[in-house]
## 1
Amino acid sequence: MKYLPVNDALFTFNRKNFVSRLKPNSIAIFHSNDEYPRNGDQNFIFKQNPDFFYLSGIDQEQSVLVLYPDCPNHQYREVLFLRQTSELIAVWEGHKYTKDEARAASGIQSIFWLTEYDTILHTIINYADNVYINTNENDRYSHTVPYRDMREYEKLRQRYPLHNYHRSALVLRDLRVVKSDIEIELTRKACEITRDGFIRVLKFVKPGVAEYEIEAEVIHEFIKQRATGHAYNPIIASGKNANVLHYVENNQVCNDGDVILFDWAAEYANYNADMSRSIPVNGRYTNRQRDVYNAVLRVMKASIQMIVAGTVWNDYHDEVGKIMTGELIGLGLLDKHDVAKQDPKAPLYKKYFMHGTSHHLGLDVHDFASRYKPFEVGNILTCEPGIYIPEEGLGIRLENNILITKDGNVDLMSDIPIEAEHIEEIMNS
Ligand SMILES: [Mn+2]
């Protein structure tokens, strides 16, 4: 890992919260993510399972976490099983956790090698009534690829068919959405690295530069500052490309007079930032570009005001839609008479702003959370309105990351330039 050691108090705190919500006499089992095949004998770079990291701080493949708070044998109340390293693995793959390092990273005292997992589990699981399994329950994604937690679940059910099986996801959905101080610090770090990448790019962009050259500048800054890399596939979309919402080709030349839409951000210690900005290739917005830009910025500022504890998703999106509709009328893109007659189920603003305004952010870029629970203190949400006008070859999106506090909210990206004049000033300095 490139990031500095994370305070293990975070993971001890998370485990304490997690086990406090289990039914009595329960055992919970978590597996590392699989190492996914890339091609031939190659794997993709390993990415830890977010729940596994949340509860253990262990960022290594082939690891198992067992939590059994009521275990009659105290030694097995919290146990980590790790891949046993060897001189051969050290030579070919490099360093793996020693038991002492795993203790320091996780705060867990009982560490065993993975080869002992089946035997130790068998000595304790028959004393438990309930077994909690970690399923990926993201409601925007349905699995077609089997993953380790599911495969291991199938084996457990064969071997221990009469235990009561439960879902850890229901507990984690409520816990992960509320960020603790250490998580907020890690997210701030991801935002700071993202800020430095953006300022670097503001000084780099000029007519004729290619989108991929900008991408190279960004990753240079990220890696230099110990980011793992991009939090998600970076979008560097000049001119009309900005109208492709998930444009990731990044292979076109940025032309004089166009705006480039950026949606990229850093991942630091598995925590993500998520930023969007839209800048003029030549350092000056045209009047029309500035009008659209400022309309998006006004929607963003008004939306951020609503990102406070107690706000309900649907009300929030409806309200943002109304503000956006007003701006689109102001820009001459919508007609107020048409708006008066619109079908409320298919509001006209969606022609120019077709995606959601916010999502939770954390260990996942689209973080795991309930859509039906009001916002709470400790939530981190994005705010990312946009206006896309294909007929003008223009798309503008702005996105900051907002932490809800007991007194309102804090913009974790408040030091990333966003006012049009400020961006022009830096580009021309
Ligand atoms: Mn986003």
Note: DSSP finds 13 helices and 19 strands in the chain.
## 2
Amino acid sequence: MTDRTDSNGRLLVVDDTPVSAEVLSEVLRKANYDVRTARDGLSAIEIVKQDPPELILLDVIMPGIDGFETCRRLKANPDHAEIPIIFITGSDDTDSRVQGLEAGAVDYITKPFEYTEAISRIEVHLRLYRLNRTLEHQVEERTAQLRETVEELQTMQMKLIQGEKMSALGQLVAGVAHEINNPVNFIQGNLVHAENYVNDLLTLIALYQKHTPNVNEELEEAIESADLEFLQEDLPKLLKSMRVGTDRIRNIVKSLRNFSRTDDSKIEKTDIHDGLDSTLMILSNRTKAKPDRSEVQIVKIYGTLPLIECYPGPINQVFMNILANATDALEEKYDSMSAMAREEFQPTIWIETVSPDDDHIEITIADNGPGIPAKIRHQIFDSFFTTKPKGKGTGIGMSISREIVVDQHHGKLDCQSSSMGAKFIITLPVSQPQLDRDA
Ligand SMILES: Nc1ncnc2c1ncn2[C@@H]1O[C@H](COP(=O)(O)OP(=O)(O)O)[C@@H](O)[C@H]1O
Ligand SMILES: [Mg+2]
């Protein structure tokens, strides 16, 4: 047997005439080719299937299927269609040569053999075949690389757009919050004085009433029409409720400013509960009761957490993405239910925070929505994967979240799901490597 690795090429000779097959094979082996032989078309096809050669020398006239048919069948299989086939024809058989070339052969050699010529033809076709394969291989490789790059670019572009949007929106919200903050502070600051003045005035009136029990008719009428008694009682309450109102506005503004912290470039020691609460506040319009939907109940089970080092803006975005998905899931489940089932169903989101050890915190966000089917669970973190209708889902929320948690913060983002609902577990380190902080 010829050593296949050192041979000039791996050939298959298909010829039913033992003598002519042997002679040709012998010559080729001497020229350092690795030669196998087949006696008919079908066994040739079988050999090619098992262990494809680099070139086939094919006799035309054979029992069973002839050379042309063998050639056609080999060419029909895309796995070996590229293997060059050289026909062996009689020296005066022009017809066969033409038919052979039509069947897909690359060349022919004639009997009796002119060995030097035959070998140079084999040599040329082997070289062409190998060159072709290398090229094909390179093209395939490049195509795959290009495809990967295009995908990466698309993802990156989408994330940039999303990031831009978030940061533009963040800036807008921060700006609006800032603008609201001033007048609200102004109102609240003056309310304190107003309360004092009103109290003084009321005391004064009380004194007048005490020291001037008999008033004239005009005054009597005015007191009555103003319903002074009620006014005295109600005015302080009214001022108090105005203060409650401005307090609430101030809280909303604080949440907005907290949520929209746009300074992504700085790691800060952050209270995660503040982030969660701000996010919930912003989402509250979606979780509260609607005419056709009951309220989403939020159950907070907050543990004692240390301040953690993180980029607050992006971390809030992660909370937003996960909480928004939970709300979507609950809506979807609610909408798919019968009126009767709805009576029994309390859409709920549980938010639990714990500090499992000194170096980590864990935030679990669970819902009692439909859950995530096992067969798509591994896909939800892929860019652009969404099960939501066009216009509603973009499929980047989870992929961005994973990037923020895992790549940016060296944390973990896990997903569990059952028929009871979905659960996302975010694990974050309490401190970040020094390197990032200076970046
Ligand atoms: N809490 C959840 N319950 C059920 N499915 C979820 C939940 N969170 C995420 N998913 C699934 O993960 C997919 C990807 O989520 P995401 O990346 O945020 O994209 P989008 O929300 O735009 O679809 C969603 O389309 C949904 O199928
Ligand atoms: Mg989403």
Note: Residues 14 and 392 are 63 Å apart (CA to CA).
